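Sanity check

After download, print the first record. It should look like this:
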Amino acid sequence: MLKKLFSFSNPVGLVITSATLILALSPEARRGTKKLLVKGAGAALALGDQMKGLTSGMRMQLGSFMEDAKAEKEQMLLSDGAQSIRAGFEEGMEKVKEAGRKAEDTFKNIFDDANPGEEPQIVTHYNVLNDQTVRNKLNEIESQLH
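Expected structure tokens:
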């Protein structure tokens, strides 16, 4: 693994090897690298402090927002709202019951074969396939298909 990483045929290995040699042999390169590392660590610490300040500020704002929401909730008149919801629900239930009664009255005798006291009527159905005109038309269509 290290052999592949530090080989000269690999471009990354070539860069790492040359950087290591320059840092090992040049005191000026070491000083410059040290300055860069110190500045990078300082920037990372400063960024961490900024993030800490932002999160604490957001916590404070969120706390005040929650307090405002609790105060608003206490000011709301929940009893009136609950009563209006209950009244609407009861009104809806009455409408459903009324519609059920109307449907029951409408379809009460739908499946009775005959009205009481009347003779049942005999219904004859017309068979379309026995009609000569329909048979002629079907024969014509069949002849056109073959």
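If your output differs, re-run the checksum step. Summary of this record's structure: The chain has a mean pLDDT of 78.
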